Amino acid sequence: MKTSRLAPALGIALALWAAGAAAQTRITVAYTAVSEFMPLFVAKERGYFAKRGLEVTPQQLALSGVMPAALQSGSVQIAGVASPVLLQANDSGMDLVGLAGTSVHNPSSKAIGLVVRSGGAKSAADLVGKKIAVPGLNAALHIIGRKWLADQGVDPRKVTFVEGAFPQMGDLLKGGSIDAAVTADPFLGRILQSGAGTLLSPLAPDLPAGFSNMLYMSTRAWQQAHGPAIASFRAALADALDFAAAHPDEARADMGKYLKVPAPVLASLTVPAYKVPLAGSELQFWADTMRQQGMLRKAPDLAAMVAK
User: Fold this and answer.
1) Which one of 60, 180, 203, 220 has the largest count of C-beta atoms within 10 Å of its C-beta?
2) Is there a single domain that holds both residue 116 and residue 100?
3) What's the pLDDT tens digit per position in 80-135?
4) Domain around 288
5) Could you tell me the sign of the dihedral formed by the alpha carbons of 135, 119, 185, 286, in that order?
């Protein structure tokens, strides 16, 4: 008799559990190993995504440049990318849309820099004829590196840019196969602390304030079909930022689980000026600079490129 009474109750409990599980929207979010994505990590670790009905799986990919293909294939639903990737992808015919921001540029930031081999170049002019590594050709740091050289009076065409993965830049400098690198934390901190290179320019002070550094994007089809999930995603990131402001050490520890850097490097990481809302106007710097560098075939419609 007890078994017969328990069975219906157990069935109801299982049905309720199944309904709750089904209500969770599953989202795989691609990211690269940089501090821009601390809110993503905190929202995952502290349960802010789950609280808002999202089952989020962060997935690390090597470079922003591979993200559009990952979105198109459906292997990820949201991708965290350097902002120029969104402009390039749409210029090439893809229909991708920005969902949220990660941060905006702060000229006092120490998160990016142009490093040179120890004992090497002392000025921009010394880089003529030299080899500079960037994490991706025609990607954000390559664009910034070319702009910085041009602003210093050096023709970027007189410098050889080569692709070098972030983690390998220190060894490439030590080995002498490159003369300089445009890099970002946590790899910038590693290079400086190891003595593999010295800082020639922090780059950030020479750039205008307020443009979008990195952002989250999806295909437009996914965005149009998942409005409530996107609102929850944005809200969870905002919750994570509130937590990080109140508990910076815990937030940094959450980030460390994903970046997997030595404790001294994690402790010294510069965190950017985080900002979740994304506006089309925050992409104007990239549109202008990329057009100047001949990277876009037409002027982009920035307002249409950002989801409401």
Assistant:
1) 180
2) no
3) 999 999 999 999 999 999 999 999 999 999 889 999 998 889 999 999 999 999 99
4) 22-105+210-305
5) negative
